[in-house]
Amino acid sequence: MVGEGRQRIDKWLFFSRAVKSRSLAAKLVVAGRVRINRDKAAQASDLVKAGDVLTITLDRRILVWKVLGPGARRGPADEARLLYEDMSPPPTPKGEAVPDAIPALREAGTGRPTKRQRRQARGIPFRDAGSGGKSCPCKRRAKALPHQKSPANTGRPGACDDLCRDR
Fold first, then answer.
1. Which of 30, 79, 120, 131 has its CA 20 to 30 A from that of 41?
2. 3-state SS string over the chain?
3. Cα separation, 149 vs 160, whole angstroms
4. What pTM, to 2 d.p., does this model score?
5. Hey, which residues does 63 pair with through a beta bridge?
């Protein structure tokens, strides 16, 4: 039934120690995270043979392995490395940034940006806390003048300065 030198992809991934269990290998394949010669593996029963190139997308890395042969068992790591040739690109050093990364908008060391700074960076207008159509304790609404807080009454919500007070 199975061709000479061919093996199920879930078994091969398990034997090569790409994943911890065969059921995790099957889930990885069904999720579309494994490609065999640039084609997505549709199911865990797809067969691989020597010479196939697998692209495996794991959590934080992408593995490109060339299959050298089928596995017989899940042995030690040295035995598992004989099943594939690693063709993955080398990882970027920690000090270097990814070339597609967006440069920082602020100077380093200025701390976490405030909500106002984040909105200004995205181009969203920020409504001041003092402006708005809230009514004040004197029951007058500031139609032409903006509703402003008094420096002395900043803790009280709705407290306004001399512009809205009864005279």
1. 79
2. CCCCCEEEHHHHHHHCCCCCCHHHHHHHHHCCCEEECCEECCCCCCEEECCCEEEEECCCCEEEEEECCCCCCCCCHHHHHHHEEECCCCCCCCCCCCCCCCCCCCCCCCCCCCHHHHHHHHCCCCCCCCCCCCCCCCCCCCCCCCCCCCCCCCCCCCCCCCCCCCC
3. 5
4. 0.56
5. 56
The CA distance from 43 to 53, in Å, is 17
- Greater pLDDT, 40 or 98: 40
**5-16 pLDDT, tens digit each:** 899 999 999 999
d(CA 105, CA 101): 12
Per-residue pLDDT of 85-127, as tens digits, reads: 999 888 767 766 666 666 666 677 778 888 888 888 888 876 6
Contacts of 82 (CB under 8 A, 6+ apart): 68, 69
CB 98 within 8 A of CB 77: no
SS3 sequence of 14-40: HHCCCCCCHHHHHHHHHCCCEEECCEE
